[in-house]
Amino acid sequence: MSVEQAVRAGVPVPAAGRVRRRRVRPGMLAAAVLLGLILLAALAPSLLAGGSPTDTDPVHALQAPGGSHWFGTDQLGRDVFTRVVHGTRYSLAIGAAATGAGVGLAVVWGLAAALSGRFGDAVLMRATDALLALPGLLLALMVVLIAGKGVLGTTIAVAVGTAPGFARVVRAQALVVRRSGYVESAVALGVPRPLIVLRHVLPNTLGPLLVLATVTLGASISTGAALSYLGLGAQPPTPEWGAMLTEGQGFLDQAWWIALFPGLLLVGTVLAVTVVGRHAQARAEGRAAS
Amino acid sequence: MAVPHIPAAIRAVTARIGAAVLVVWGAATCAFLALQLIPGDPVSAIVGSNALVGAEQREEIRHHYGLDRPLALQYGSYLKKLVSGELGDSYQLQQSVSSLLAEQIGATAQLALWSSLVAVVLAAAVTVLTSGRSRWPRRVSTAVELIVVSTPSFWLGIMLLTVFSFRLGWLPVSDSGDARSLVLPVITLALPIAAVLTQVMREGLLGALEQPFSLTARSRGLAEHTVRSHHALRHAALPALTLTGWFTGTLLGGAVVVENVFARSGIGRITLQAVSDRDLPVVQGVVALSAVVFVLVGALVEVLYVVVDPRLRKGTGVAAA
Q1: A249 contacts on B by Cβ (under 8 Å)
Q2: Taking burial as the number of CB atoms within 10 A of a residue's CB, which of A6, B78, B79, B246 is the most buried?
């Protein structure tokens, strides 16, 4: 249908190209393959890179990428490829754990807001407003102050940073679910309130949230690495990508590869997670619409 | 016509100011409460590793900063000071927090304003140029946007430094005071924002081109590019405006990263320093400052909405003002 026809009919028509979907795109396939490799590197890094990520070899320090060292060596002669591969699990674990904890926190927060009456709802939602008024990174920095530096502190910080946004989604969804026919029926049947929340409200609230969490996972991985880069997360000699970048930044004039490869892997990971996440989101929305 | 609007306008403005004050108060309170949760004695954060400070001097320091008073009183005086713009003294820098922030805000504001300008112009240009009938420019642009959005700004900054400062030697490595040292930080901060803006504006632009007013504009004989840049782009700007909160937050958070990558002075630099040193008054000050900035930018956007979209002018108070 042309634009003119659509206007005459008074029907908003999606732009051409947005109607077609559900064909596996090459980009999606590449992202899935990359994600598979990244997961392999996180779970079994020794399969991809046999050596130790922390063994130093000062004789072969600062060697450019080549046959024996694919990604070169750093200032202590450690193999950058091995370090990058072994570092995958830190970034992935921080991002995944933070997103999971953020969702958990948001479920409690959002459900409490949706189910606790007008006053409780107002207080909890104004609290998310106040937290959302702060830049995410600033909020994360404040949490690092409380939870302490290091991998655990960083994970908690990223989790708290994502929770307010998630909490609003949970609340909105829970309000919809609460007014739905099946919850009404359960109330009419005399099902106890906690059981209704657990059995009906919670599962139906979680669906959209999980999709949102997948899309946010990339950002969480990125924020976690940023905190490590700023010196607050994983500490050297841990082969975490953000920490490797900090180390590499001191050698940019002579050995660009130390900083290039951890960042490249970080971009690849965030990209793959985002593409797969958006695909899941599009599918979920398509299903909801039909 | 204007007379019946005035009460509504006053009510709208009062409600908005009230909401703004509430957000700032909430953020400041969250900061106050959060910093009470920090384990350890704040006096230890003040004296640092100075072993010569005895128990008596510790008590003196505690009294000087008012840390020996009940929590409710501390909170009360914190709020009272906040209202008068007084933010206490830094634990580490022998300086009041307000003068410290005043000193540093110029560099960060310069970075943030240039970055917003570059991001908005770049996003608008890319949106208009890739909104044609041909699908390929859009596909390429979409792929590039996705990659840029996925690129952490600290790594982008490091790579720009490697190429343009270390390899090619075109731009200074760190802040040298002249305008050239601003180029790479601005690009680093602007590119990811521009990518997100482009994604949102393209959706808006494609939607607007299907609206009746686009058809009207075309039927009046306007060239396609005029329809796009004069009529449809305004509508594409509306969804982008709703991102302002995110935008401001990204600029402030990004400043922390970018100022540290490029060793520039500014609010971001002292924020990280304050977090590392547990310099709590500075952290509280930065939180209060960013909440105020958030609220001010939000108010500015409310006005911009009406400027961009004439349909919103009724009953908002802005028309009456």
Answers
A1: 158, 261
A2: B78
Q: What are the tokens at A266? A: 């970080």
- Contact between chains at B161 and A142 (C-beta distance less than 8 A): no
Kindly provide the ipTM of the predicted complex, given to two decimals.
0.81
Contact B27 A13 (CB under 8 A): no
End-to-end CA distance of chain B: 13
CA dist A104 and A159 (Å) reads: 9
Domain with CATH 1.10.3720.10 in chain B: 97-313
Eight-state DSSP code of residue A116: S
Are residues B22 and A126, on separate chains, in Cβ contact within 8 Å?
A: yes
Instruction: Give the CA distances from residue B114 to residues A28, A239, B117, in Å, rounded to whole numbers and listed in that order.
Output: 35, 35, 5
Q: Is B22 on the interface with A (CB under 8 A)?
A: yes
Give me the DSSP letters along B2-57. Answer: -TTHHHHHHHHHHHHHHHHHHHHHHHHHHHHHHHHTSSS-HHHHHHTT-TT--HHH
Q: Which candidate from B146, B272, B276 shows the least CB-CB separation from A274?
A: B146
Strand residue runs (E) in A39-167? none
Q: Are B35 and B280 in contact (CB under 8 A)?
A: yes
All residues of chain B having their beta carbon less than 8 Å from the beta carbon of residue A130 are: 23, 26-27, 29-30, 291
Residues B219-258 as b or e (16 or more Cβ within 10 Å = b): eeeeeeeebbbebbbbbbbbbbbebbeebbbbbbbbbbbb
CATH fold for domain B97-313: MetI-like fold (1.10.3720)
Query: Partners of A146 in the beta sheet?
Result: none
Rg, chain B, Cα only: 24
> Considering CB atoms only, which of A132, A259, A267 is closest to B245?
A132
Residue of B127, B150, B202, B267 to mutate, interface with A, max A Cβ within 10 Å: B150
Q: Does residue B46 contact residue B91 with C-beta atoms inside 8 Å?
A: yes
Q: Which of residues 238-257 of A touch B (CB under 8 A)?
A: 242, 245, 248-249, 252-253, 256
Indicate yes or no: CB of A133 within 8 angstroms of CB of B27.
Answer: yes
CB of B301 within 8 Å of any CB in chain A?
Answer: no
Burial label for A25, CB within 10 Å (0-12, 13-18, 19+), is exposed
Closest CA to B21 of B9, B11, B29, B32: B29
Per-residue pLDDT of chain B (321 residues; tens, 9 = 90+): 445 556 777 777 788 788 888 888 888 888 888 888 887 777 777 777 666 677 788 888 888 777 888 888 888 888 888 888 777 888 888 888 888 898 889 889 999 999 999 998 999 889 888 877 778 888 888 888 888 988 988 999 999 988 888 878 888 777 667 778 888 999 999 999 999 888 888 888 888 888 888 888 888 888 877 888 777 887 777 777 777 777 888 888 889 999 998 888 899 999 998 888 888 889 888 988 888 888 888 888 877 877 777 776 655 444 433
Q: Could you tell me the pTM of the whole model?
A: 0.82
Q: Is residue B217 within 8 Å of A3, Cβ to Cβ? A: no
> Residue A230 and residue B271: Cβ atoms within 8 Å?
no
Coil, strand or helix at A79: strand
Tell me how many helices (H) and strands (E) chain B has. Answer: 14, 0
DSSP state of B315: T
